[in-house]
Design goal:
Layout: H1 2-15, H2 23-30, H3 34-40, H4 44-68, H5 74-109, H6 114-130, H7 138-158, H8 165-180
Amino acid sequence: MREAILRVALDLFPSKSYSKVSVDEIASRAGVSKGALFHYFRSKLDLAAETLARLLARVVVRPVRRIVNSELPVGDKVDELVRLSLETSKRYGARSLSFLIEVYSELEEKGKAYFVREMYEELMGELESLFSGISGRPRARARILAAVLDGIAVQYMISPERFEGEELESLMEELRGVILCRTPG
């Protein structure tokens, strides 16, 4: 039952909005009573927190780890990370970003956002390891890359046509140059 509830929450929260999804709707779609839902999750926020943790692990942390730990050269890894950001943005859109912000804000207010910060730091560690063999400051490069990837995702949501063909290739070439501190081309 717990997994059925989480599957429904993973479908509803990122596609609608945390505030617009009711506990009744989740319970109904999961085929459980509202009481059963509260047996597994103390509150809607607790359910949203676990949903967010699973979504971040599945959509961000694991794919980034797979790319960073691949045998690709660093520049190609940066390209793959850009593609991941675009694919994620295309698949989940602005509502999932809204879900992250909305739930994180509420968790932060209640002092329960620690797991998001832990996942973020884990992600920064993965990205930092990407630059460990390059002179300079790997942690700063990791944070810059993360910020750029987030920005690319938002820009893609607004104007996806800007991320096709030659424009996308040019963007990735420039990004490689900036992140790796070399002149593109």
